[in-house]
Amino acid sequence: MSNTETLIEAADTANKQREIDNETASTPDLLHKKVSSDSEISNISFKACGLDSWLIETLKKIAITKPTAIQAACISPILEGKNCIGNAKTGSGKTMAFALPIVQKLSQDPYGVFALILTPTRELALQISDQLAILGTPVDLRQTTIVGGMDMMTQALALVKRPHIIIATPGRLADHIRSNGQETIDVFKRVRFLVLDEADRLLSPGFSEDMQKCIEILPEANNRQTLLFTATITDSIRNLKNQSSKPGKNPLFLYNITESPIAVPSSLIQTYIFIPSYVKEAYLYRIFNTQEYKEKSIIVFTNRTRTTELLCRMFRILDFKITALHSEMPQKERTQSLRKFKAEASKILIATDIVSRGLDIPFVELIINYDVPKDPDDYIHRVGRTARAGKSGESITLVSQRDILLIQAIEKRINAKMEKNSYVSDFKVTQELNTISAAKIEAEMSMTNFGQLKKNNKRKHENLKE
């Protein structure tokens, strides 16, 4: 059975077995609706979607008067009791597409735990929590966020109180299940909704063990609704279209804005700079100081947490207003960094791929791939943080000799060639090497204890499994 089938079915044997069989399983009845363009549903109102008047008034207070395409397509089927797979680009309103019907259903039969929402990152969980807090105010919605980097005892006490909605990352929720056993399992006995946000990532091999632990404690598939939302429809999700329908199962509503693979924004200018790998920091410094880019809002993507931290410390030494976001930062620092960047207190954010998808980040003008991503789709998600909603944007990828095959794979995937960047001066880079080298040495000397948090968390996780 594929991961997707396991989650849609919610493992009919969820409370009877503790591992997923490798056999092909049946899937729900399939209701597949194709919408070729947003114009086909442009006249649909929230009222026509089936939302109650009090919820429509709540939306008006935050200046939301009309549903987006994915909201107009998915809200009604969810209210009708269908399982749902929603596919749309980041920033298209996917969170509201599942949050609105869940809050309305909760208002009609309030109890805890009513819904479990799983997300791949802490930041996305906190973002969803903020939106639910607004929507749920009229019905006194109680929610809690279960993510890493926060005190487990405080979270355990919050779970026992059975809030209406729990937003969690699979790893931390699985830790609670392993450590508290039946006490935590009982909390989820009556869950009405399971939501997987950024489902393609949650269904990847890296999450499989923790996802299985979370899914197996929930009610069986026909006793709840399963909602999957993603910016990327993978083969495993797409294969659900071809599954035969079976009687007695919840119908599945599948919504795609387009059948095409994910693509780079049409208004994006994609450039590269070919450099020796040992002067990458100097070229990054030159980009930051180039007249064309120095006032722009910038996200710099790296492949490693250590690189992210080193660059952040380096450029702070060089007096840049800069912030970082990566998995080895304490949660409080991660939250503060994101808030600083959104508020434009820092114009530059250096981050790993935890920022590349899902998060609601304000207008970004320039994406820099300090490290070339190994997966072409990761490149698309990164550069998709700019040139959104038809606005202009630019990406710069730093390319060394060893990156050529990766660049060729990316260009094949996007069916386009990157242009050579014409703004950054090689001559000025050579003049600044001494300044950069001194800052790098100072930054490296300050990182003697970096990685200790990760080691401590790994040790705790291993102890929970014993």
UniProtKB/TrEMBL annotation:
Residues 75-251 form the Helicase ATP-binding domain. InterPro entries: DEAD/DEAH_box_helicase_dom, DEAD_box_RNA_helicase, Helicase_ATP-bd, Helicase_C-like, P-loop_NTPase, RNA-helicase_DEAD-box_CS, RNA_helicase_DEAD_Q_motif. It holds the Pfam family DEAD. CDD domains: DEADc_DDX49 (cd17955), SF2_C_DEAD (cd18787). One of its GO terms (molecular function) is ATP hydrolysis activity. GO terms for biological process: endonucleolytic cleavage in 5'-ETS of tricistronic rRNA transcript (SSU-rRNA, 5.8S rRNA, LSU-rRNA); endonucleolytic cleavage in ITS1 to separate SSU-rRNA from 5.8S rRNA and LSU-rRNA from tricistronic rRNA transcript (SSU-rRNA, 5.8S rRNA, LSU-rRNA); endonucleolytic cleavage to generate mature 5'-end of SSU-rRNA from (SSU-rRNA, 5.8S rRNA, LSU-rRNA). Signal peptide: none annotated. SMART domains: DEXDc, HELICc. One of its GO terms (cellular component) is small-subunit processome. Its main location: nucleus. Residues 44-72 form the DEAD-box RNA helicase Q domain. SUPFAM superfamilies: P-loop containing nucleoside triphosphate hydrolases. It comes from the Eukaryota. It is found in: Nucleus. Residues 283-430 form the Helicase C-terminal domain. Keywords: ATP-binding, Helicase, Hydrolase, Nucleotide-binding, Nucleus, Ribosome biogenesis, RNA-binding. A motif (Q motif) lies at residues 44-72. Belongs to the DEAD box helicase family. PANTHER family: ATP-DEPENDENT RNA HELICASE, ATP-DEPENDENT RNA HELICASE RHLE-RELATED. This is ATP-dependent RNA helicase DBP8. The lineage of its organism: Eukaryota, Fungi, Dikarya, Ascomycota, Taphrinomycotina.
